Amino acid sequence: MGWRVMWRRMLRSPAAVFLVSSFFLLGSVALLFAWLTFSPFPKPLPVSSKSSSSAAAMASSSSSSSSSSSLGCRPDGEGSWAIGVFFGDSPFSLEPIELWNEWRNESAAWPAANPVVTCASVSEAGFPSNFVADPFLFIKGDTFYLFFETKNSVTLQGDIGVAVSKDNGATWEQLGIVLDEEWHLSYPYIFSYQDQIYMMPEGSKKGDLRLYRALEFPLKWKLAKVILKRPLIDSFIIYYDGYHWLFGSDFSFFGAKKNGELEIWYSTSPLGPWKPHKQNPVHNIDKTLGARNAGRPFIYNGSLYRIGQDCGGTYGRSIRLFRIQVLTTDRYEEIEVPLGLERPRKGRNAWNGARTHHLDAQQLKSGKWVAVMDGDRVPSGDSVKRLFIGYAAFGAAIILVILTGVLLSAIKCILPLSRCLPILGKRSDVFQAEPRVFLYLKLGWFFNHVNKLSSPLHGRINTKTCRGLLVLSIIFVTLVALTCIGTHYVYGGNGSEEGYMVKGHYSQFTMLTMTYDARLWNLKMFVKHYSRCSSVKEIVVVWNRGQPPKENDFDSAVPIRIRVEKRNSLNNRFNIDPLIKTRAVFELDDDIMMTCDDLERGFKVWRENPDRIVGFYPRLADGSPLEYHDENYARRKGGYNMILTGAAFIDHKLAFERYWSEGAKVGREMVDKQFNCEDVLLNFLYVNASSLDRTVEYVKPSWAIDTSKFSGVAISKNTKAHYHVRSECIRRFSEIYGNLAANKWGFSSRRDGWDL
After folding, report:
1. In a domain, 749, yes or no
2. Which band of pLDDT confidence, cut at 50, 70 and 90, is reported for residue 262?
3. Is a pLDDT exceeding 50 seen at residue 418?
4. Collapsed DSSP state (helix, strand, coil) of residue 149
5. Is the same domain home to 482 and 364?
6. Once rounded to an integer, what is the mean pLDDT over residues 85-93?
7. Mean pLDDT confidence for 620-640
8. For residue 520, which of 574, 571, 590 has the smallest C-alpha distance?
9. 401 within domain boundaries
C-alpha cells in the first residue's frame, strides 16, 4: 500500500504535472512539424516479385522469401550505393545513359535513366539488399553481364550478385547471387584467361586473396586457388608488357595508411606464383591522393591507366585517374590526368550526388566505350550521424525541460530515503535485500546532492515580471527548435527526394512552363527548385511576352531552354517542339510550388498510364447546362472528369499533335478569343480522340503553394469571372467534341492512396 500511496502522490505532484504537460506540448509540436514537413505518402519498400523465373530458380540458394525480400533498402551506415551506365567515344568523354536517349517500351523508360541497378531492383528479384556497389562488366558478344557487391539486408554481409542486359545496358535482369561465403565479399574483378572466366573478389576478412573459376557462367563458380595469403583490398590483375600485374592494398601491417597504401605483384600467370614489386608499397600516402584502387584499369592509345579513390572527407568521395608512366619489376611511376566526368548538381536528389568510388570502362566492337559506375546520394555514416544528432537534440530538450522546472520551482528534486528503502519483514530478508538497499542508498545520495546543487536555482524565473516572461519565451523557442531538429533527423529520412522505379527502371521527363517578363521572379524560384528534382532532364520556358532572359540568368542544375514565341497566346503551351528529347512533358505553371517527391509520384503514375493526362488539380464539369467546378465540388460529388494542365504529365507528341490537328482549330480560336480554356480544350480532345475508357488520372500533392499571390501577378484573380468563362468554353466544346461529363472517375481508386 505504501508504494501505491507514494505513486499517487508523485503523479499529483507539481513536478509530475509539469513534466507530463511539457512532454505533451513538445510531442504535439513534433507531430505538427512532421505533418507540415514530412510527405504523407511514404516511399514503399521493395517487395519480392515472384514472376521472375530466374529469381525463383535462385531462391533456394539465397535464403530469400517474399517476407525477407521486403527487408531490402534499409538505412545503412555504409550508404545507399547504386549503379549507373555511361557511354562515350572515349573513356574521357563518358556521359550517363539518359543523355544517349535510349527508349525502352517494356520498362516504360523514355528515355532509360541512371541508376540502372539499385537495392530495390535486387530486392524485388528476391535477394534483399541494402545497397549495390563495385560493379564490373563482362561482355560476351552483344550481352552485358554485370557483377557487383550487394549487401545482404539480413546477414549485413557483402555477397556477389549478377545481372544481365541484352540491350546495351539500358535494362537489366537480376539473375541471382553467385558467391555467398561466410565472410564479406566485394569488388568482384572478373576477367578471362586461356578460354576460362575467373573472378577475384575482395575477401580481406578471410585474410587471403582468392581466385574463382566459372563452371557454369554466370551463376556457378568454384574456388580455383588462393593466390596470395595477404588480406589485399580492391585488387585487380592486368596483362601488360609481358607480365600479369596484380595491384592491391594491404592496410593490416604497421605503418600502413588506411586508403592510402598500394602494392604491386607480378607473375607470368594469373594463377601465380606472385612476386612482390621492389618498391612495395609503391604508395603509402594520404587517403585523398588516390592510392586505393577504384575499378578496372584500361589501355587507351597505348597508355595504361589506373583508377584510384579519393577518400577525403568521406569514404569513396570521388575517383581520380592516373596514367602509368613506368611499370617494371623494380620501378613504378604514374601521373594524374583529368577523367572529364561532370559532377552532378542535384545534391542528394541525384543518385550519385554525394560520392562515387568505382569505374569499369571497356571498349565495344563499335569503337565506342561503355562504363559502369557506382554512386551514392549520402556520405558514409550518414544514417548514424542523423540518429546521433536527432537523439542529442531530444536529450538536450529533456534536460532543458527539467532545468526549466527547477527554475520555476515545479521540480524540487527531493527523493526521501525513507521512500526508497525496502521494508524488511524478517531478519533473513536483510541478506536478500542488501543489494537493493545499497542501490537505494546510492540513488538517495545522488538525488540529495542534485537537490543541494539545484536549490540555488529554485524560483529564479518569476513569471510575473517581463524579464521572467522573456526568459521563459526564449526557453520555449529553444525547446521547439530542439524538438523539430530531433524529429527531422530521427524520422525525416536522409533528405533526398528520389525517383520511383517502374518495372525496375528509372526514366526522365521535360518540364515546360509558360510565362512573361512580369513573372521573372516566379520563374527564377521555379527553375532553382525544380531543376534539382531527380527525374527532371530539361526545363523549357515558353516566353510569351517581353524581353526574354538569358539562360545563364538562372540557377539551374539541368539545361534550360528559352523558347521565344512570336505572339502572346495560351496555345503556345502546346506548340509542337521537336527539340524535346523525352516522351513525358510535365506542364507546370510557374507560380505553383510543390515538392520534388510529388513530381516523382506523378511521373510514376504517368509511366504506368502514358496515354492519360496525369496531374494534381482535378476539376468536374457537371450539371445541365454543364458548369465548371473546382476540386472541393468534385470531392462532394465523388469524382472528376478533367485534369488541369497547369500541373500535369502528358505524352507531348500525342497531346501536341491532337491539339494542333485540324479538328481542334475552332477550339484554339476560342482559346485565343477568351485568353483561357487551353487546358479544358486538351481534356476534350483526349476524350474525343481516345479509344480508352479513361483519359485522366489524379495524384494528390502533399502540398502546393501559389507563389503568384506573393508577387501580385496572378492571371486569374477574379475567380467567379474565370469560372464563368470556363463554363462557356465547356458548353461550346461539348457541342463540337462531345460531352465529357460521362468520363467521370472517383477518388480513392489507387491502392497506394495517392489519389485520396
Report:
1. no
2. very high
3. no
4. strand
5. no
6. 97
7. 95
8. 590
9. yes
SS3 state of residue 92? coil
- What are the b/e assignments for 728-740, b being 16+ CB within 10 Å? bbbebbbeebebb
261 three-class SS: strand
Radius of gyration in angstroms for the set of CA atoms belonging to the chain, rounded to a whole number = 32
Higher-pLDDT residue of 442, 217: 217
Residues 391 and 325 in one domain: no
Helices (H), 63-184: 66-69, 119-124
DSSP class of residue 589?
A: -
* Residue 649 belongs to domain spanning: 508-737
Q: Do 515 and 485 have their domain in common? A: no
Q: What is the mean pLDDT of residues 3-14?
A: 62
In the predicted model, what is the mean pLDDT of residues 624-646?
95
Alpha-carbon span 166 to 148, nearest angstrom: 18
Task: Say if pTM beats, i.e. exceeds, 0.70.
Answer: yes
The rounded percent of the chain whose pLDDT value lies above 70 is 87
Average pLDDT over residues 558-569: 96
Burial annotation 668-697 (CB, 10 A radius, 16+ → b, else e): bebbeeeebbbbbbbbbbbbbbeeeeebbb
Helices (H), 63-205: 66-69, 119-124
Measured CA to CA, the distance from residue 751 to residue 682 in angstroms comes to: 28
Count CA atoms closer than 13 A to 370's CA, side-chain side: 21
Distances in Å between the Cα of 136 and the Cα atoms of 187, 371, 374 are 8, 9, 10
Is there a single domain that holds both residue 317 and residue 220?
Answer: yes
Q: Is 265 exposed, middle or buried (0-12, 13-18, 19+ CB in 10 A)?
A: buried
Q: Do residues 127 and 256 share a domain?
A: yes
- Helix residue ranges, H only, 13-134: 14-37, 53-62, 66-69, 119-124
Catalytic (active-site) positions: 679
The closest alpha carbon to 332, from 298, 291, 274, belongs to 291
CATH classification at residue 150 = 2.115.10.20
Query: What number of residues does the chain have?
Result: 756
Residue 358 has pLDDT above 70, yes or no: yes
Task: Check if the beta carbon of residue 450 is closer than 8 Å to that of residue 444.
Answer: no
What are the tens digits of pLDDT across the range 663-704? 999 999 999 999 999 999 999 999 988 777 899 999 999 999
Higher pLDDT, 253 or 84: 84
Indicate the number of domains in the chain.
3
173-179 sheet: strands from edge to edge = 129-140, 143-152, 158-165, 173-179
User: What tens digit of pLDDT does each residue of 27-45 get?
Assistant: 999 999 999 888 888 777 6
Contact 69, 126 (CB under 8 A): yes
Contact 584, 651 (CB under 8 A): yes
DSSP state letters, 475-540: HHHHHHHHHHHHHHHHHSTTS------BTTBEE-EEEEEEE-GGGHHHHHHHHHHHTTSTTEEEEE
Are 400 and 480 found together in one domain? yes
CA distance linking residue 27 with residue 370, whole number of Å:
53
Which pLDDT belongs to residue 50? Answer: 45
Domain end position, chosen among 380, 404, 423? 380
In this prediction, residue 742 carries a pLDDT of 85
Residues 164 and 274 in one domain: yes
Distance CA 722, CA 451 (A): 69
Residue 17, in any domain of the structure: yes
For 366, the grid coordinates are 563499335
Report which of 623, 341, 596 is spatially closest to residue 493, judged by C-alpha positions: 596
Question: Same domain, yes or no, for 466 and 600?
Answer: no
Average pLDDT over residues 351-368: 97
Peptide bond into 273 cis (omega under 30): yes
H or E stretch at 223: strand 220-228
Neighbours of 643 (CB within 10 A): 28
For residue 63, the model assigns a pLDDT of 37
Q: Is residue 615 part of a domain?
A: yes
For residue 404, the model assigns a pLDDT of 86
